[in-house]
Amino acid sequence: MTDRKILLVGNWKMHLNVQQSSLLVHRLHERIRIRRDIELVLAPSMLSLQPMSVQIDRRKFRLAAQNAYHKDEGTCTGEVSFTMLQDLVHYVIIGHSERRIYFGETLEVVRDKVAAALRNDITPIICIGETEVEHKAGETRQVLHDQIVTALSNVTSSQVKELVIAYEPVWAISTFGGTLAKPSDVQETLNFIRAQVKDLYGPSAAKAFRLLYGGSVDNQIVRGYLELEGCDGALIGSASLNYEKFSGICDAAYRLQTERGEQ
Ligand code: PEP
Fold it and tell me: Is the CB–ligand 1 distance for residue 214 below 6 Å?
């Protein structure tokens, strides 16, 4: 067994009602074996979290919410707070590009959500990534720098070690075009992200926090990203809704961990 687990997070986005979610969990449960060197996280809709928390085998799956509101309680009709999610989920996805783009989530909103997650003992999965326009204009590093510095502005160095950052170039996400990013380019950006965290918090924090890649990842191509240095796993959208593809992604991760363990 290797010392670092691979973290695979399935973001089901606004798909599947409670019954459909239950069926998908059932299918995944049948196909996926428990492996201590892989951590599997499912992020269904808010409505499915409670029934799924009863249904899942907790040795196999953990739960994430796709979003939450940064205030703990109050006159905020229609919102669900991190406080309310405390006993249900291990993780909350924060700053997903669909939320930044469709719902106008600013850098400061993301910062406040990260603080709310940590205050409520929930691990944030902070999504960062540049748009196609920014990418083409050569602004990737500046964009990521601003996203990282703002998101982490209330985070201590011991907290940063526990959190997860997912690098998701917006242009690579299926929602926004799904152009596949070259693993060699992703490697450079992952190195840049770790270097940013190192500048802010020092080498041990930069090594400890988990860094994922996301952007049209499926069972055929996942290995190319999981093999990258400093890549701790993947955030998977569309392919996580298909039990054959998602279990194929898990199989690819198992194979990689087995090979690493044998080396
Ligand atoms: C996502 O939703 O974070 C994502 C990466 O989606 P997809 O895998 O469909 O591109």
Answer: yes
The residue whose C-alpha atom lies closest to atom 1 belonging to ligand 1 is: 237
At 3, the pLDDT band (50, 70, 90 cuts) reads confident
**pLDDT tens digits for 241-253?**
999 999 999 999 9
Query: Which residues are part of the catalytic machinery?
Result: 96, 168
> Quick one: three-class SS letters along 11-50?
ECCCCCCHHHHHHHHHHHHHHCCCCCCEEEEEECCHHHHH
